[in-house]
TrEMBL record:
Leading EC class: hydrolase
Cofactor: a divalent metal cation
Protein name: Phosphoesterase
UniProt keyword annotation of Metal-binding present: yes
Statement: the UniProt record of this protein carries the keyword Metal-binding: yes
Record keywords, A-Z: Hydrolase, Metal-binding
Molecular function GO labels: hydrolase activity; metal ion binding
InterPro entries (alphabetical): Calcineurin-like_PHP_lpxH (IPR024654), Metallo-depent_PP-like (IPR029052), MPP_YfcE (IPR041802), Phosphodiesterase_MJ0936/Vps29 (IPR000979)
Length: 181
C-alpha cells in the first residue's frame, strides 16, 4: 500500500505518486489528508488543480482509505467519490494495529490511546518519519507537494514488513520494520 499525504491540490505531485503506486504494485492508497486545498498558510503550488486532482483520485476510489486534514472540507467531499471526512481510522498492517490520522488533532506529541507495538500514521507536518519511539512506530510519509525541513517531496510505502518513506526520486529517506517491536 502507498501512503500519500498533503497533496494540497497539486496535480503533478499526485501524478508522480500514482506512478509509484503502479511501479510498486500497490493495491491500496492511504490518503492522510489535505488532499485538494492548498490552505491559507501555504503557497499555491505549481500545478494547482483541485478539480483534476479529485477526478484522478476518483479513478482509484475503490482503492482509497482517506482521512480528513485541516484543509479538507465538506465541499471537497462533494468532488470526491470516496469518504474523506473521518478524523481518523484504524487498520491492520500485518498483525499490528495502525491508527491513521492527518496529525492536526492527534500527533506525535498528542497520541491517541495506543498499545506497545501499535503504529501511528500521520501527515500534517510535511516532515518524513519512520521510527520506533517508546514502543510505538511513528510513521509520517512527509508531503508529496510541500515538503518541509529540507526534505524532498516524499510518500510512504508498506511492503508487508517495512514502512518506508521514500522521495519521489525513489531514494529511501527513513524505514522501519513493523515487526521490530
Amino acid at each position: 500500500m502507498l501512503f500519500i499525504s498533503d497533496i494540497h491540490g497539486c496535480l503533478p505531485a499526485l501524478e508522480r505518486a500514482l506512478e509509484w503506486a503502479d511501479k510498486l504494485n500497490c493495491r491500496h492508497l492511504i490518503l492522510l489528508g489535505d488532499i485538494l486545498n492548498h490552505g491559507p498558510r501555504n503557497p499555491v503550488p505549481d500545478g494547482y488543480n483541485p478539480p483534476r486532482v479529485a477526478e484522478r483520485l476518483n479513478e482509484h476510489a475503490e482503492r482509497i482509505l482517506a482521512v480528513r486534514g485541516n484543509c479538507d472540507s465538506e465541499v471537497d467531499q462533494m468532488l470526491c467519490q470516496f469518504p474523506l471526512l473521518a478524523d481518523y481510522s484504524n487498520m491492520l498492517l500485518g498483525k499490528q494495529r495502525a491508527f491513521i490520522t492527518h496529525g492536526h488533532l492527534w500527533n506525535d506529541t498528542k497520541l491517541p490511546p495506543l498499545a506497545r507495538g501499535d503504529i501511528f500514521c500521520f501527515g500534517h507536518t510535511h516532515i518524513p518519519m519512520a521510527r520506533w519511539q517508546e514502543g510505538r512506530l511513528m510513521f509520517n510519509p512527509g508531503s508529496v507537494t510541500l515538503p518541509k525541513g529540507g526534505y524532498a517531496p516524499s510518500l510512504g510505502h508498506f511492503d508487508g514488513t517495512h514502512l518506508t518513506v521514500m522521495g519521489l526520486d525513489g531514494n529511501t529517506i527513513e524505514q522501519a520494520e513493523i515487526n521490530e517491536y
